[in-house]
Amino acid sequence: MSLNNKKQISAASWLTNKYIVKPDSNSPQATEADIVHETSSHKLINQPMINFFGRKSKSSAIIMAISALIALITIYFFVSPYLVRVRIGQVNLVGSRSYSQYQKILSKEASAYLLKVVYSENKIKKYSLSTIGLSVNYPETIKNLNSVSFNLVNRLQPWKQNNLDIAFTSNTKVIANFNKLYLTQVILPPVNANIALSGGQVVLSNSSVGKEYGVSGGIDSVIQSAKKLSPNPIKLKVIAINPPITTQQLSAQEPVLNSILSQRVVLSIAGSSVVASADQVGSWINVSVSTKTGKLVIAVDPEGIKNYIDSVAQRYTRPSKDQLVLVGSDGTNTVIQSGQNGISVTDESRAIKTISDEILSGKGVNAAISVSESPFGTVTTQTYPKWIEVNVTTKRMYVYENANLVNTFLVSAGKPSTPTPIGVFKIFSKYAVQTMVGADYVQPNVPWINYFKSGGYAIHGNYWRPPDWFGNINSSHGCVGLQVSDAEWVYNWAPIGTPIVIHG
Q1: What does the pLDDT look like over 411-430, one tens digit per residue?
Q2: Domain tally, the chain
Q3: Where are the beta strands (DSSP E) in 16-96?
Q4: Distance from CA of residue 4 to its chain's centroid?
Q5: Residues 62-81: tens digit of each pLDDT
Q6: What is the DSSP string of 73-121?
Q7: What is the pTM for the complete model shown?
Q8: Residue 504's CB: how many other CB atoms inside 10 A?
Q9: Do 147 and 227 fall into the same domain?
């Protein structure tokens, strides 16, 4: 094959982008048939033809399509908030609005809205949002509206209907009053369980469920309906009212009280031991139930413990009895009543504290009190044709004519916080009956009054205390009280000017 032929073939191969042939090195002169044969025995290299004009056109089309898509997405991104659908009350909105436009729409809807309540016998009443205690919170509601409009999911679903609740500012007092007056009609009130101590035992009374016309879900369901500005009426129906304090709640706490009552409480006095009964222990305990938690509130009454100790101490103690000496007109002294030393409790307050501190543990209490002898005093007074002696400690009254004892009465004098004055006084006014008034009391129709000191201090009849208080308990605001029949005797016997000697 000539050199020119080889060049022609090579050129033809390059131009047609078909074959490149590697000649056999051992055949310097190759024929055209040899070349054909060589192409079948050598590796052919495929060289694709480059079409610059076609590739450029296709790339431009793709770029233009992508640019158009990006433009469409960008335009939709800005336009889509105006395609989102939102429902507020009875108004359907399409697209975002300005703050003032939203406020105007909300104000109109809220002003027009009336909550419908269906009562018994299908009576319907309507109430505005302000009557319920609700007012539109415009900033919060409009913020929520914008959140719905600009939410990406909503913007991708412009056909979707979005329902929005209105945000309210609540007046809790008005809401509570509205619920009480307009949404609640009690048919049968519930009864709370109760627990008490009586006769040394725990007494538990059962609770019971009540009934009322009310709303299922209570006031919260009404507020939720108002947030949606729902036109659907709310119908009152009979619902059960559970008592705040149930039998089950209190019965679970009953063992605590039983342990307090059943424990052994021992009071040691003057070498003797006295065991308090369960009834006595129960009288020292005040029990109530918290309406908020249903828990027992147990408190100790120190005054009840003191009264118990005083009653026990009476067997082992006695008040001192003053010696009464009359001074005659000639200066001589005559003892008309001999004195007697008393026996009194010396550490009662410590025993009260011990019992108060330990009684609620239910593990038993041992308290000791000591007694000691107290010397009698001497009261010296002149002799009078008629005169009265009152010992506020022994709670006794003695009536004399000169040195002769005419009568003796039991009295109830001033209590420790309002004691009867000590000294020598005279009766200055008398009333058969009168309403007595003090700083913290009004006592009508007090009989047989003998005033002996300004400020309202008198000897009088006392009809409002039981008979066993006289001679045992001082209970007045400072007066000397007698049983009514005894007071009448003194009133008729003692004229104005009768001296009264009061001591302790």
Answers
A1: 999 999 999 999 899 999 99
A2: 5
A3: 85-88, 91-94
A4: 116
A5: 888 787 777 776 776 666 66
A6: HHHHHHHGGGT-EEEETTEEEES---HHHHHHHHHHHHHH--EEEE-GG
A7: 0.51
A8: 16
A9: yes
